[in-house]
Design brief:
CATH superfamily: Hypothetical Protein Pfu-838710-001
Order of helices and strands: EHEEEEEHEEEHH
Number of strands: 9
Number of helices: 4
Structural class: alpha+beta
Strand content: 35-45%
Radius of gyration: 17 Å
Distance between the termini: 50 Å
Strand order of the largest sheet: 1-6-5-4-3-7-8-9
CATH topology: Hypothetical Protein Pfu-838710-001
Length: 188
């Protein structure tokens, strides 16, 4: 029987920066945060106007999943998710299935990622071709009332780390540009 409240909502903010800032953050987090592990991922994103579907091969942890985020980046900080664990050998089949179903707006990305826990906030220090060096700050909540507190906690940590958080407008502009760039590269 499922848990009484199995709803999973990620409160998530992002920051992009230079390699120099990335190295400063890595040094700081290695010293002051709990290292949760390397977490490199090979991800296929299927992009919809109002949500995001992902097939994720977690290379570091040797597992995989299909994830539906019921919100799109740049449309608020809360992302309710539905996750389905899958066999790693089935990743290509899931990608083929979604592609054959007509989900054409797809991006593929390999992400180098190191996860930390700092003052109750999960911090994923990342690099990918599309995003460059960046940080995701996240708190998992179960109820709507916990959202505001999670946002405050994340903003405090970002300020302490000396990184600016991207606004929804900046995120929409960036993701639209990244999606267009990916599509141009596919055509050429």
């Amino acid at each position: 029987m499922p848990a009484k409240n199995s709803k999973r909502i990620e409160i998530e903010f992002r920051s992009r920066f230079s390699k120099r800032v990335y190295l400063r953050l890595k040094k700081f987090l290695d010293r002051h945060a709990k290292n949760l592990s390397q977490d490199d991922k090979d991800v296929h994103f299927f992009i919809f106007p109002d949500k995001l579907l992902k097939v994720v091969s977690n290379v570091s942890k040797k597992n995989a999943k299909v994830v539906l985020k019921l919100n799109k980046i740049g449309r608020g900080s809360d992302f309710e998710e539905i996750e389905i664990p899958i066999d790693t050998a089935a990743v290509k089949s899931w990608v083929a299935l979604f592609t054959r179903l007509g989900f054409r707006n797809m991006m593929h990305s390999y992400q180098k990622r190191q996860n930390y826990l700092y003052k109750g906030v999960e911090a994923a220090l990342k690099w990918s071709k599309a995003w460059g060096h960046h940080l995701e700050l996240e708190v998992l909540v179960r109820t709507e009332t916990e959202k505001k507190l999670a946002e405050i906690k994340i903003k405090r940590v970002a300020k302490e780390l000396g990184v600016g958080l991207m606004t929804d407008r900046e995120l929409r502009k960036f993701t639209k540009s990244a999606e267009a760039e990916y599509a141009r590269n596919l055509r050429s």
